[in-house]
Design a protein that fits this description.
Helix content is 42%, strand content 19%. The protein is α+β, with helices and mostly antiparallel strands. Strands 1, 2, 3, 6, 7, 8, 9, 10 and 11 form a nine-stranded antiparallel sheet that branches. The longest helix has 20 residues, at 347-366. It starts with a strand and ends with a helix.
């Protein structure tokens, strides 16, 4: 395989937006080099890429889904059982027991035991409901689970509920007897090749686990925080809301006054695909891996994050998508912008010059490995990045081929 890593670099401009907010409602920012930059967190980027729905979305790929939620067991274990006629106390007790077993901490085991005691007293799983939002069986934190895992655990609960009848305490005892931790871990890991038992999202972006049952999945796609190539440009947006009815009655004032921060900027984005890690996580399915890479190239270039969508319409396509493939350790090109790009004149052209010059300097100092190849799609990039600019479809197809060589 001539490609060990696939790197994707982007330059994307956003005018008058608030793409990613901090806890105080201001645009996220980060000191870098010679100035403070506006930032978009990698978590924000990855969520929008995962959730995007369209022709080239990750959701359109035929692969098991990953569920990220506190109430996964309520939605995919309890609700199916209720729809099949299992009494609510029995379904709740079964799901709570499975949560305690799968996530394994003493605190969660204690909660499962409390649910069991409540069930023996003739309760309706009140202890479980009290600790969960709106009466649901919930985990204390967001869990990352694949649909194959949830379907398997639902089937375990289904078998136990059928044998237990209307007795919540009996279903807990039956699950305790049947869920040997070693066998449970073995069965879950055997659901799909590689890490697809945890779903496509976990196979791409990883999964941290704290218990002994679920397998940890190392991320195959590494995503950097996007930052502006120039110093932060921000403005306080003072706005008012007019009360239509009071205005008709002669009211001259405003019904609401407030201010919000808006920023604009040209962002450098960067991600790395660990090709071997991706293939391993996808069960060595090169066809599936190629589809993933094709989708990634498209969504990274065309899917925008953004808060305040209704008032800023924060939708932009990248000016530049630069891909590199090879065996050498990846390296960010963000250091091309350690000195903030001059925003006077054409900021995109200035960024092209800084980036193209930095790439040439890297090649001079470190050489360009024979296995390394580059290709790009961009707007008015002539003379900056060597080869002629291609279409985004051509670049995505090029990336697919790198996985098959």
């Amino acid at each position: 395989m001539s490609t060990r890593f696939l790197q994707i670099h982007t330059l994307t401009s956003y005018p008058a937006t608030l793409l990613n907010r901090d806890d105080a409602g201001f645009a996220k920012r980060m000191p870098f080099g010679g100035g403070v930059r506006t930032r978009i967190s990698s978590q924000c980027l990855k969520r929008h890429w995962r959730e995007f729905e369209g022709e080239v979305s990750l959701k359109s790929i035929d692969a098991p889904a990953t569920v990220r939620s506190r109430v996964s067991f309520q939605e995919f274990v309890v609700k199916p059982l209720l729809n099949e006629g299992v009494p609510a106390p029995v379904a709740q007790a079964a799901a709570a027991k499975i949560v305690g077993k799968v996530f394994g901490s003493e605190a969660k085991k204690k909660k499962a035991d409390q649910a069991r005691k409540g069930a023996k007293k003739g309760g309706e799983g009140a202890e479980v409901a009290a600790a969960a939002p709106a009466g649901a069986v919930a985990t204390e934190q967001v869990t990352v689970l694949g649909r194959p895992e949830l379907d398997y655990l639902c089937q375990l609960a289904r078998v136990a509920c059928k044998a237990a009848g209307n007795d919540p305490s009996k279903v807990v005892d039956l699950l305790e007897e049947s869920m040997n931790e070693k066998e449970l871990r073995k069965n879950i890991n055997a659901l799909k090749p590689g890490s697809l038992e945890a779903g496509l999202g976990a196979a791409l972006f990883g999964r941290m686990v704290t218990g002994d049952i679920l397998s940890r999945t190392d991320a195959a796609i590494h995503v950097a925080h996007a930052m502006t190539v120039h110093q932060q440009m921000t403005e306080s947006d003072y706005f008012s809301a007019i009360d239509d009815l009071l205005r008709e009655q002669g009211e001259s004032g405003s019904g609401h006054l407030n201010a919000s921060e808006l920023t604009s900027g040209l962002f450098y984005g960067y991600l790395v695909v660990d090709v071997q890690g991706l293939l391993r996580n996808l069960g060595d399915d090169s066809v599936l891996a190629a589809k993933v890479v094709n989708s990634l190239v498209h969504i990274v270039a065309t899917v925008s994050p953004g808060a305040k969508k209704g008032s800023t319409a924060p939708y932009s396509y990248s000016h530049l998508v630069l891909l590199e493939s090879g065996k050498a350790q990846p390296r960010t090109l963000a250091n091309a912008f350690l000195e903030p790009v001059d925003t006077r004149g054409n900021v995109v052209e200035n960024a092209y010059k800084a980036l193209g010059s930095y790439v040439q300097d890297l090649d001079k100092v470190y050489g360009r490995p024979q296995s390394e190849q580059r290709v790009h799609a961009g707007i008015r990039t002539s003379g900056h990045f060597g080869d002629e600019s291609k279409t985004l479809d051509e670049v995505a197809s090029w990336a697919e081929r790198r996985l098959c060589e």
